[in-house]
């Protein structure tokens, strides 16, 4: 789930010009890459480019806020700087508590925006406007929202009715917020992300059922 250096998928804007122009004079090699990455993390400190943030606020009503380590995501201003047009479905290969623990660990270098528990409880760990390192592909990280699910890809019993329904409501809300079509082109599994070596959500994830549930949700649009 770690971020890669695969590029693309971004608009040319103040942020892009700042990073590109500053990195150009650094030369090749590891030092230049490190400096560029640091600039990418620091851009938000410029005045007037970040959206309002309120400590503990969630994008999904009813979700519990549990902050991921800042090493596992980066500040952004989505969808102003990156268009959000995908939802990526993950399975943690462990428990809800396992997912929360590793996403709060700065050494893990990965996190999803949300974690869904077997009983349908949802934790938000990264704000939707920020880029979570969840897909193993930089372009997909920048354009998507990642939803982690407790369980194991080899165990059909991991995927409960409560989990499917809660996750479907979450995905439907995300699709409504960002005008994402509720279809399999735009709601994808981690295994479908280009360049990934992951297999989740696995063959026991019932995509037909999930997409039906997502499409059945009626969402009242709110300002974003």
From TrEMBL:
<keyword id="KW-0961">Cell wall biogenesis/degradation</keyword>
<keyword id="KW-0378">Hydrolase</keyword>
<dbReference type="InterPro" id="IPR006311">
    <property type="entry name" value="TAT_signal"/>
</dbReference>
<dbReference type="InterPro" id="IPR051206">
    <property type="entry name" value="NAMLAA_amidase_2"/>
</dbReference>
<dbReference type="Pfam" id="PF01510">
    <property type="entry name" value="Amidase_2"/>
</dbReference>
<dbReference type="InterPro" id="IPR002502">
    <property type="entry name" value="Amidase_domain"/>
</dbReference>
<dbReference type="InterPro" id="IPR036505">
    <property type="entry name" value="Amidase/PGRP_sf"/>
</dbReference>
<protein>
    <recommendedName>
        <fullName>N-acetylmuramoyl-L-alanine amidase</fullName>
        <ecNumber>3.5.1.28</ecNumber>
    </recommendedName>
</protein>
<feature type="domain" description="N-acetylmuramoyl-L-alanine amidase">
    <location>
        <begin position="73"/>
        <end position="202"/>
    </location>
</feature>
């Amino acid at each position: 789930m770690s971020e890669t250096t695969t590029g693309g998928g971004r608009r040319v804007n103040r942020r892009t010009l700042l990073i590109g122009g500053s990195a150009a004079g650094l030369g090749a090699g590891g030092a230049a890459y490190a400096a560029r990455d640091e600039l990418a993390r620091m851009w938000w400190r410029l005045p007037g480019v970040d959206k309002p943030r309120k400590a503990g606020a969630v994008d999904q009503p009813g979700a519990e806020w549990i902050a991921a380590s800042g090493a596992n995501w980066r500040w952004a201003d989505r969808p102003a700087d990156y268009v959000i047009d995908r939802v990526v479905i993950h399975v943690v290969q462990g428990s809800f508590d396992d997912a929360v623990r590793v996403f709060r660990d700065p050494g893990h270098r990965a996190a999803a925006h949300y974690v869904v528990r077997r009983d349908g409880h949802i934790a938000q760990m990264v704000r939707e406007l920020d880029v979570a390192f969840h897909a193993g592909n930089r372009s997909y990280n920048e354009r998507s929202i990642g939803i982690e699910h407790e369980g194991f890809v080899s165990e059909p019993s991991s995927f409960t009715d409560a989990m499917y329904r809660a996750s479907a409501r979450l995905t439907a809300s995300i699709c409504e917020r960002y005008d994402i079509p509720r279809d399999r082109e735009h709601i994808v599994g981690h295994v479908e992300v280009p360049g990934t070596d992951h297999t989740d959500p696995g063959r026991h994830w019932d995509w037909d059922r999930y997409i039906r549930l997502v499409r059945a949700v009626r969402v009242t649009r709110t300002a974003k």
